[in-house]
Write a structure and sequence with these properties.
Strand content: 15-25%
Number of helices: 5
Shape: globular
Distance between the termini: 25 Å
Strand order of the largest sheet: 1-2-4-3
Largest sheet: 4 strands, mixed
Order of helices and strands: HEHEHHHEE
Structural class: alpha+beta
Number of domains: 1
Length: about 120
């Protein structure tokens, strides 16, 4: 495993070997649709598997995001919780942005009450 700090778009655009797997946790919802589409396009050229866990967008997660003050969260976390849910995913929104879907097995679903899971696996040739 290699850990590094870099701009994601610059790092993905560099010619390099492919990774067996990439993960994203509470990261993809930070991007506008156009940026996310480009990020996914670049990731698809560099990995065999991409797994992501993101906030789930929906009424129940939004309601609970507005109650995090009850467990002692500060103003920054309270603000971010609601924005993250509003920027989160539902249905097959990430899959719709994935490039070259014929070469990939895509799975996307809600995961428990507040999360949204996405998995892209390159098909065997």
């Amino acid at each position: 495993m290699e850990v590094l700090t870099a701009d994601i778009f610059e790092w993905l655009a560099k010619p390099a070997e492919t990774a067996d797997a990439m993960t994203a946790n509470l990261f993809l919802h930070q991007f506008a649709e156009r940026q996310l589409k480009e990020l996914l396009r670049l990731a698809a050229t560099r990995t065999k598997v991409l797994a992501a866990c993101e906030p789930r967008r929906g009424r129940l997660p939004l309601m609970f995001s507005r109650m995090v003050r009850l467990i002692g969260c500060n103003a920054v976390t309270r603000h971010d919780a609601e924005l993250s849910v509003l920027g989160g995913f539902a249905g097959r929104e990430i899959s719709a942005l994935w490039p070259e879907t014929q070469q990939w097995n895509l799975r996307e679903r809600s995961a428990r009450m507040f999360s949204h899971a996405f998995l892209a696996e390159r098909k065997e040739r």
